[in-house]
Specification:
- With about 150 residues, this protein is α+β, with helices and mostly antiparallel strands.
- About 30% of the residues lie in helices and about 15% in strands.
- A 6-stranded antiparallel β-sheet has the order 1-2-3-4-6-5, with helices on one face.
- Helix 1 crosses helix 4.
- The protein is globular, with a radius of gyration of 15 Å.
- The two termini are about 30 Å apart.
């Protein structure tokens, strides 16, 4: 799956607003080109936190474990919450620090705990392929449903 296919899938779920960080928007330079997906409630408001993101580069000094700067890579991230995270990885987000050595955060096309936000229930995958597309969609559906619930959108 490419970034456009992911965006198209999310937009098809409804109540989703993508936001691409840019200089024109006054966003920090490090985030330019990254995409953030928010739930939009019926009044047009969005929560402050996205439920999914696509990042296209390492955040030097903060988030480098995925090694996205190898070229041509992106990482899809999704908020699964405690239960979704445990179902996918076999441990709770709060237990992740003790489990983190089990994961190669630079592996391609494999769902992994988010290298920085695992403790909050986030999962990630670098350059998902058609092979993982159905699981990507399931993960995004989970994140979307959670975000709708949190935003009070029915």
């Amino acid at each position: 799956m490419n970034q456009q296919q992911i965006t198209d899938f999310l937009m098809g779920l409804g109540n989703v607003k993508p936001f691409v960080a840019s200089e024109e928007n006054g966003d920090p330079e490090i985030s330019w080109g990254d995409t953030f997906y928010y739930i939009v409630d019926p009044s047009g408001r969005s929560p402050k936190m996205p439920f999914a993101t696509i990042v296209i580069k390492d955040y030097v000094g903060f988030d480098e474990a995925s090694r996205l700067n190898r070229g041509g890579l992106f990482r899809l991230n999704a908020d699964l919450g405690k239960e979704g995270f445990k179902e996918l990885f076999g441990h709770l987000p709060a237990e992740h620090e003790a489990q983190s050595g089990r994961f190669d955060y630079s592996a391609l096309d494999t769902f992994l705990p988010h290298p920085v936000y695992a403790q909050y229930g986030w999962a990630s995958i670098i350059n998902p392929s058609e092979k993982s597309a159905s699981q990507v969609k399931e993960i995004l559906l989970t994140a979307h449903k959670r975000a709708l619930h949190k935003a009070g959108v029915k």
